[in-house]
Design goal:
Layout lengths: L25 H25 L8 H24 L6 H13 L2 H13 L3 H31 L9
Helix pairs in contact: 1-2, 1-3, 2-3, 2-5, 4-5
Amino acid sequence: MRAGRPLRQASSADRAPRPRNVRAHADVVAVVAVGGALGSLARWAVGLGLGATGGEFPWATFVANVSGAFALGVLMVFVLGVWSPSRYVRPFFGAGILSGYTTFSTYMLDTHSLVVADRVALAAVYLFATLIAGLAAVWIGVVLARWISASPPAPGTSS
């Protein structure tokens, strides 16, 4: 009881909404899964290309997260303001490819590993550099995509 009033019983309106029928969205789930697999493979390739060295700046994760942030900025401009609505584009590229490509969990694990390796200053640089570079990359992606989408088509091309 609160202030002399009895607590009210939960009604059916207070309960969480029922989950949507997954079968009705199986096509979108499949598109996200395929995109996620492709994005994860791309991140793996970046890791192979840049390598991983313990106790050093984690360039592979940094590059994946910052370039993914840039791509997300570009994607959102085109998805929300340029292209015709599509059931699959945003789930495939945004929730699929870019979510598979970028990795907040590895970003935190890399930061923790640097701290454990007594590289606290480097961990702080990595932590804040990734955040600042990611935000700048999204902003640059948005600005660039808006500039590209506002540019008139080249002569001889159809719009």
